[in-house]
Each structure stands twice: as C-alpha cells, then as structure tokens.
C-alpha cells in the first residue's frame, strides 16, 4: 500500500479504498455476507493471509467467520466457515483480551509472546492444519456507542515478496477507520436476521417443526447451493455475491405463510384429511401474498420462494398458478414444471426436504446424511432440478457442517424450541 511523504501515515488512496469497500458492504443484507466482505476487505487493507471474526453473544465470543488464503480457496466455501464454538470474554485469549479491554492487540510473533501477556496463544489450529500463525492484529469492533460488538482478528500480514511480517503502524492507524463503519453494517445485518427470525417465530408458534434452527439452516444451505450452482454456470462474482446474500434471507421466509393456517390443521396430531391438506397447501400463496407489493429485489425473491417451494421439477407439485391476491380454495392450478419454477424456489425445495430428512421430529429419528443424499439423488429429474442436485452434491460437506452448526446451538433468541 502506498505511503505518503511522512512515511507511515495512511495515504489518500488508502482512505478512498476504505470508502469504496464500505459502499460495497452497505449493499449487503445478510450478516453472513457482511462478515465475509468485512473480512475480505480488512485482509486486503493489511495484506493479511487469514482472519477470523468473533461476535459477542451474551457473555461469550462466538466464532462467526473465517478466511484463510493458504488453507482454503477463496472461491469455494469451506465447512470451517460454519464451525460452531464460543470463547469466554476474558483476558486469557487474544480475542478475549481485545473484547475485555477494548484495545487493539498487536503481536509480531504468536510463538514469542511477551512474558507479561495475560493471554496465551492456542496452537491447536496450527497443529491440526499444518499452519504457522506468526503476526496477529486483533481489533475490537466497537459501535458508535462504544459497545463492543465483536473482535476482528487478522493473521500473517505479508510484504511484497509474500514473506510474513508484523502488521505495520499504517495498518493500525487505518483499520479503526474501516472497522467503526463495518461494525455499523454488522449490527444492521444482525438486526435483519433477528427481524426475520421473529417473523418466523410467529409462523413457528403455529407449526413447531419450523424452528429458528430449521430456518437458519435452510437459509444457509440455499445460499451455499446457489453459490455452487452459480460457479458451475460461470455467473460473475458480483452477481453471485449479491444473489447469494438475498437468497439466504428470502429462503428463511419460505414458510412464513403458515401464520395464516389454523392451529387445528398445523398441530393436528393425526393425518390430515384431503380437505385439510388442501388448506395447508395454501401456506404457499398466503406467504407470497405478504410480498405481493414487492418493492425490493428481496421482496420479489421472497415471493418466488414462498409461492414455489413445494413445486416439483416434473410438474407434480403445488400450488401452480394461483391468484395470490384473491385467494380461492378451489382454484389451485396445475403444478409448474422445470424452469417455470424460479431457480431460488428449486433450490429451497431441495434444502427444505434435506433438512426435514436429517432432522429429528417428534414422530421420527433423524436420517443419516448419506442416506438423505441418496434419496435426493434418486429424485433428481423428478422432484428436483438435476443441476441443483449436482450443486448440492458438490457442497454436501458444507451442508453437513451447516446442520451441525445450527443444531446444538442456542445463540441469539434463535432457537427457542430446540
Ligand atoms: Fe412449505
Ligand atoms: Fe421448512
């Protein structure tokens, strides 16, 4: 990065770069997409090989995003992104220290910590992955009100010759300018996620199988399946990032129409009669109706998914063409088929079925992941779009990590019933 005449102060070019990256971050809606982009930009500003973001969750720090240029390629999503762990907020770890004190921690070599440091360096990750962490910069993510929202940890800054070097004073000066604004975006993303989850909680009160965890999982599978589908199609990265961000949120809302279905049907312990099942099918159109005055791309994608997530590739699904404004129980159309079904709905159809198969329900044990994969492969071309099945197959290992990530988990107010 260019330095000005004074030697170490950040240049105008560096500030312009920060403004540009913040604009791109502000275009994103889902917290995952925001974290990914924040980490990418922070690494670019400091030429860091790797980085992790932790977010404060009650009295702990939750691991929330990771990138590592050496270990995982930037294009492909690695299952490590969905790792599930938290750390206490105390001075015994590097990120804990930063969150406790609100200070930036600058370590030239993680294996040569000063004797006086209250924290140690945990070598487990390096040992497991044959990685060598050297320089570390841990910066608290502070909101305008000085509340600590999380910690951004950058690892192994590199010089022009790709040799690992300590983070520079320029990096330390520059990053807070970026992180204060990035933190606002992260808080906005967290708020959006909570709003969606609250909306789904209303639907969930009706249908206890649609838990917060199920909703988060379906959103994440859909995002990763889309990402792989788009890579296979050669969709450019800008379009990919944008659509992946939107599909994650819209997919979470797939069953929002259940708010309009009676408890007598949703909670009926016995099999539904044909008539009850027909009523139940209307949750698709009811959900779509909530977005019928679509004012944004997110609204129209949510409409597509809510309406079409029970359609099948071979045309045997529902609801087909229906009037979502003047709904009439007798007027459910002939199922849509093939590419008449919007792509996002073809993806969510698979994600929703996969999750139902591998999750425990009051009436059934969870199915093994591989068995569920087999069923989905068998239904390629009948229930599911073959290209979506192919993409799912390719990110199956990530989907398993997602299922594990949002199962034994009680973060936010996310999973009230599990
Ligand atoms: Fe549904
Ligand atoms: Fe669902």
Bound molecules: fe (ii) ion
Structural class comes to: alpha+beta
Alpha carbon gyration radius? 23 Å
CATH first level of the largest domain: Mainly Alpha
Helix content: 40-55%
Question: What does this entry look like structurally?
Answer:
By secondary structure, this protein is an alpha+beta fold. It folds into 2 domains: 12-188, 2-Layer Sandwich (Beta-Lactamase), CATH 3.30.450; 207-405, Hypothetical protein af1432 (Orthogonal Bundle). The protein contains 15 helices and 7 strands. The protein has helices spanning 12-26, 31-46, 94-101, 124-129, 169-206, 212-233, 237-252, 263-266, 274-281, 283-290, 297-308, 343-358, 369-378, 386-394, 396-405, and strands at 48-57, 60-68, 86-88, 105-107, 136-142, 148-158, 164-165. Strands 1, 2, 3, 4, 5, 6 and 7 form a 7-stranded antiparallel beta sheet that branches. Helix 10 packs antiparallel against helix 11. Bound molecules: fe (ii) ion (2 copies). The site of one fe (ii) ion has 6 residues, from helix 6. One fe (ii) ion (FE2) is lined by residues 210, 214, 218, 254-255, 352.
